[in-house]
Amino acid sequence: MSGTDGGEPLLEVRELCKYFSEGGGMLGGVTFDREFPFLKRQRGDVRAVESVSFDIEKGETLGLVGESGCGKSTLARTVLRLLEPTSGSVYFKGEDLASLSGEPLRRKRKDMQMIFQDPQSSLDPRMKVGPIVEEPMKAHGMLDEEGREARAKELLEKVGLDPQHYNRYPHAFSGGQRQRVNLARALSVNPDFIVCDEPVSALDVSIQAQVLNTMRDLQEEFDLTYLFIAHDLSVIRHISDRVAVMYLGQMVEIADKEELFENPQHPYTRALLDAIPVPDPRSGGRTALLTGDVPSPIDPPSGCRFRTRCPSLIRPAEYDMTDAEWANVVEFQRAVKRRSFETTNRAAVRQRHFADAEPGGEAGTLLDEAIGHVAAGEWEEAERLLTESFADRSVCATEEPAYEVSPTHGESRHYAACHLVRDDAVAAGEETELASSVGERFAGSADVGEADD
Amino acid sequence: MSEPLLSVENLKTQFFTEDGTVRAVDGISFDVHEGEIVGLVGESGAGKSVATSSLLRLVESPGEIVGGEITFKGRTLFGLEEDASGELRPRDDMLSEEEMRREIRGREIAIIFQDPMESLNPVFTVGGQLREFIELNRDLSEKEAKREAIDMLREVGIPAPETRYDEYPHQFSGGMRQRVLIAMALACQPDLIIADEPTTALDVTVEGQILEMVKELQTKYDTSFIWVTHDMSVVAEICDRVNVMYLGEIIEHATVDDLFYDTKHPYTRALLDSMPRPDETVHELNPIEGVMPEAIDPPAGCRFHSRCPDAREVCREVHPEPRDLADEGEPTHRAACVKYDAFDVGYDESRPIEGDAAGGFGAGLTRTGGEE
Ligand SMILES: Nc1ncnc2c1ncn2[C@@H]1O[C@H](COP(=O)(O)OP(=O)(O)OP(=O)(O)O)[C@@H](O)[C@H]1O
Ligand SMILES: Nc1ncnc2c1ncn2[C@@H]1O[C@H](COP(=O)(O)OP(=O)(O)O)[C@@H](O)[C@H]1O
Ligand code: SF4
Ligand code: SF4
Ligand SMILES: [Mg+2]
Ligand SMILES: [Mg+2]
């Protein structure tokens, strides 16, 4: 089941980018940055999906997880070419979808179906369930009327509904049942590949389990391949063979399910895992929560996009300081960025941020200057000094990470976009690409991201 | 134990619709003590939101509270009595609508809704709304209220509160808006905050931050909470005691530890068993068969009998009221299930119900049908 190197990829996605041009869409002309200076009038695209590469093998389920707005739905739609990609390629059964259009693309679409997040709005309330299920067959000229009806009834039964429900309207169904109708419709044209965009997120847990079990059974019976999107890691752990973690438009980690949950390498994956609540009052709750918000996809951080929130940001080589000192510097810099000070006199700031470890030397001098700015209420100067002297000098800001490490669970390749693994990496940059058959490459680790903040 | 802060007795709220009477809340009783977080958990449609809006008498037509008693700090928020002709009418000591609005809502009991956009006005700045709320409810000058508003924003973790004070709700992320609502709820230092699924729409990362913050604020101000959720993990994380609702009724009540480690009601058990786990790989999930029936015409007997794996014939006939099943000296643990000896209605001798629980095709089609 799990994607080993020997398997044959059904879908190969290479360097896929999807930008939304500014002005259209929900963001309009003005954007509100979550960090200072909050309001930016800028031109630029929403870089919703950037340089994403992955494979999905025949018969497997790739789980795709990430926070709201990170680009999961956009990626899914771009893969299916419901959205036109900005650049990059998608190979389905070896054929580049980007090179197809018109009738050939339409025919190809029959093999690739999608189930949407909201079972309510994805079914036409004026149509009966039978015709809803038959619709894709009709569109692709499959079977005659009688044949379609017979197949629709058979499929309703397969997804756990009563074939008698053929003549009912969607409103008479519960959320879980509507999602089953969606499944039947997707299955009607006998696809190989189904993209499921949060198919159970809107359902109660008790119903979620029913639908997830049905999806698994159908996968086995029809040899289906799933790209399964969810923001709930418990659901992802249940349904996936491999898991891809997305942050701010990019893949940060891809690995076998067991490997990802038991041996996560990327600090963002770890933070997500730590944030999952465990249904057990004796578990002691979630640990070490992420702070700050996701930055704007219009002007994402250079290098590693997670660096503005990363708890493990790498110390710039030029400064000589202990880990504790560096941690305090990072914490202080982020506090200045958030302006989260109740008192700003020098002694109080020192006490709050550097009581246990204060760097000396050049770093110490720079910090002293920054603390002076804070005490004088010169926030912008303090922020600029700290950013330029520390944050921007980290390798995390200057180089885009892309590595592959050897897995301790399963045999699938383990991709981790974090410089922390560079010493353990079995491959980096050029060699890191997941499958060589298509010849596209991951961004090399030597690529210097534009220093744009 | 001391007098509860809030006590609810046999509360019933119904909606009078064309299709019939929806018995959304059908005789629930629970209480909240000072400084406690009490959970109200159940799947969607169980009646959680109707129950919480009933507490503040915010149920709108065609809905109506038709019975029961709600007491808060010795005052009667709701109570009926029979008049000479046997008609029910509000008791004399029941607070007037005016008193509810001026003295209770917002000041003594605050409520936080699931969708923060519904509670924030999009055309006014976040700070302005918070300031006005404080000004009105705490008799502070505009200037003092503004200072207080900024302090509250900082307190709930809004970065750069002085700047953000002048921004509009749409400029805030979902998590930040929910923080603002929490700030608003806390602003009048109420004794009780009712939170109706305030984190359900948020990512776990943000949910974690907010729950963490609520726990801190709760310790600091000793505020009591009623925390409404459908998520057992949130219950485990934040609640002291829990009430589990099914189809308008509270079917189990226990301390959070007992609820998870000494689960009594088959519905609670099934709910816990149906969840995928983040911390281990489970191969086959155990769903609860079927769906919750409609509240218009709830099943006779135990309302869970159509889905219960332990259901027997007697469950169709006897309607169990929650009973305390705890041992002497142990904290209260109520459950409404006739399989326990305390009910003594012949469960052991009764025949298992066959086929019903298996659900099959028809399980849980909503009763409105829709066949044309
Ligand atoms: N049509 C559009 N125009 C402009 N920006 C868009 C458009 N569609 C999406 N975006 C932006 O692209 C980014 C990714 O959005 P997307 O809907 O793919 O996220 P998602 O991961 O599916 O989120 P969720 O978990 O909330 O469904 C967001 O910043 C979003 O605001
Ligand atoms: N305005 C209304 N009119 C008719 N029925 C309603 C109304 N509001 C809620 N109900 C019904 O009351 C029951 C409980 O609903 P609710 O309290 O919203 O559930 P929960 O919050 O637990 O998801 C459901 O059967 C619902 O359909
Ligand atoms: S590359 Fe740097 S900032 Fe990015 S996750 Fe790794 S340590 Fe953190
Ligand atoms: S009373 Fe009967 S049907 Fe109801 S929960 Fe108990 S065993 Fe199940
Ligand atoms: Mg989405
Ligand atoms: Mg509700």
Automatic annotation (TrEMBL), chain A:
Alphabetized UniProt keyword annotations: ATP-binding, Nucleotide-binding, Transport
Residues covered by region (Disordered): 431-453
Domain annotation ABC transporter: ranges: 33-273
Family: Belongs to the ABC transporter superfamily.
Keyword set includes Isomerase: no
Any one GO MF annotation of this record: ATP binding
Protein name: ABC transporter ATP-binding protein
Pfam families: ABC_tran (PF00005), oligo_HPY (PF08352)
GO terms for biological process, alphabetical: transmembrane transport
NCBIfam families the UniProt entry points to: oligo_HPY (TIGR01727)
UniProt xrefs under PANTHER family: D,D-DIPEPTIDE TRANSPORT ATP-BINDING PROTEIN DDPF-RELATED, TRANSPORT ATP-BINDING PROTEIN
Lineage: superkingdom: Archaea
UniProtKB/TrEMBL annotation, chain B:
Major localisation: membrane
Membrane topology: Peripheral membrane protein
Record SMART domains: AAA (SM00382)
Positions of the ABC transporter domain: 6-272
Localisation per UniProt entry: Cell membrane
Catalytic activity from the UniProt record: Ni(2+)(out) + ATP + H2O = Ni(2+)(in) + ADP + phosphate + H(+)
Source superkingdom: Archaea
EC number: 7.2.2.11
KW Nucleotide-binding (keyword) present: yes
Chain intervals for the UniProt region annotation (Disordered): 352-372
UniProt xrefs under InterPro entries: AAA+_ATPase, ABC_Ni/Peptide_Import, ABC_transporter-like_ATP-bd, ABC_transporter-like_CS, Oligopep_ABC_C, P-loop_NTPase
A GO molecular-function descriptor: ABC-type nickel transporter activity
Annotated keywords: ATP-binding, Cell membrane, Ion transport, Membrane, Nucleotide-binding, Translocase, Transport
Oligomeric form and interacting partners: The complex is composed of two ATP-binding proteins (NikD and NikE), two transmembrane proteins (NikB and NikC) and a solute-binding protein (NikA).
Family annotation (PANTHER family): NICKEL ABC TRANSPORTER, ATP-BINDING PROTEIN (PTHR43297:SF13), OLIGOPEPTIDE TRANSPORT ATP-BINDING PROTEIN APPD (PTHR43297)
Name of the protein this chain belongs to: Nickel import system ATP-binding protein NikD
Organism: Halorubrum glutamatedens
